[in-house]
Amino acid sequence: MIRKQIKESIQSIPGSKLTALPTSSGTIFEDQDFHLDMQGVRSLITGSSQKHNLQVQINKKKTPQ
């Protein structure tokens, strides 16, 4: 079930949020269940082009104890 929710959340990200990615860390997009974060930009191999490090994270609701 969670995999389907992640897929739907990713598909709901507006294209405009993905065309000009920032180079600094921060949240790119969020909804009530998930958020897409920029973790930074780095080169995987010295001299190679830089790659964006993006992560989809779940907004877990805290339950009362």
Could you walk me through the main structural features you see in this protein, from its secondary elements to its overall organization?
The chain is of the alpha+beta class and 65 residues long. It has one domain. A hairpin with a 3-residue loop joins strand 1 and strand 2.
Structure characteristics:
alpha+beta; 37% strand; 3-stranded antiparallel β-sheet; 65 residues
Helix/strand class: alpha+beta
Report strand %.
Answer: 35-45%
Q: Gyration radius, to the nearest Å?
A: 14 Å
Q: What is the total number of structural domains?
A: 1
Low-confidence stretches: none
Provide the spatial order of strands within the biggest beta sheet: 1-2-3
Order of helices and strands: HHEEE
The description of the largest β-sheet is: 3 strands, antiparallel
Residues in helix, %: 10-25%
Number of E-type strands: 3
Mean pLDDT: 83
- Cα shape: elongated
- Alpha plus pi helix count: 2
Distance between the termini: 25 Å
Write the layout of secondary structure elements.
Blueprint: H1 2-11, H2 16-19, E1 26-30, E2 34-43, E3 50-58
Antiparallel strand pairs: 1-2, 2-3
Brief summary:
With about 60 residues, the protein is of the alpha+beta class. Helices cover about 20% and strands about 35% of the residues.
